[in-house]
Amino acid sequence: MTPTTPSAGARLSLNQKTVNSCTVPQVVELCRATGIGSVGLWREPVAEYGLQPTVDLVAEAGLRVSSLCRGGWFTATGTAFDEAIASNHAAIDEAAALGAACLCLVVGGLPEGSRDLGAARDQVAKALEILVPHAAEAGVTLALEPMNPIYAADRGVLSTLGQALDLAKPYPADQVGVMVDTYHVWWDPTLQGQLQRAGSEGRLVSYQVCDWITPLPADTLLARGMMGDGHIDFATIGGWVTEAGYTGDIEVEIFNADIWAADPRSVVDTMINRYGDLCAPYAG
Fold first, then answer.
1. Measured at the alpha carbon of residue 177, what is the angle toward residues 83 and 4, in degrees to the nearest 5?
2. Any domain includes 8
3. Each residue of 193-227: pLDDT tens digit?
4. In total, how many domains does the chain have?
5. Which end of the chain is more exposed for a tag (fewer CB within 10 A), N or C?
């Protein structure tokens, strides 16, 4: 039987970080209770609950797993690089067990004491060469996530979608793709063309949404806002993503201390309403 493409509303996915205080069972129950069809999971809470129990729980709830977060951190050196590779091998196996649409890769920032962005990106390419055969065997798509340039030093030396696509180019699209997060790419003047490129290459495997809010908090990791609370034009970017041919889940991932402290059900209800107003109409 040929699978059907979910409708725009049914494509909403709740990333576990948006309700950061919730356990795996609580996140699954939130999705079930609110009719959300897909969930983005994180490795640490999955490990805490247990991989097989998580697989069983998600299956019983009839949920898709839109992504598993996260692999990556490839820019370490020495034994730390070997440890990162071992961790990513495990992450690939976890993503396969969960049937995740992709394994998110946050590639890592500059090594301590380094200012050489080029060498750090070469290290990411080296890691992909090692990991792609395992991912291909497991049937897992590795999703490179370009990050906003404010994180280039400490989290992600890939700052643009174009850079991520260049790194993915040597590999088949079902083995290495890209994850597009509005928070990280909204500022990029080349975004429309790079989304078209990602679509034409079949590499657009994940679309995440949240807003860019100002003023930025002291901890910029927690600078994401609920859609509609900031500056991102979701209609335009959503239209470009649709034009690129993306029909997968649309995942809401928010790192924000105030949202994390709020009642999770209230957060999800707001998320559903904002998604319906700002994202679903442009999701094709």
1. 125
2. no
3. 999 999 999 999 999 999 999 999 999 999 999 99
4. 1
5. N
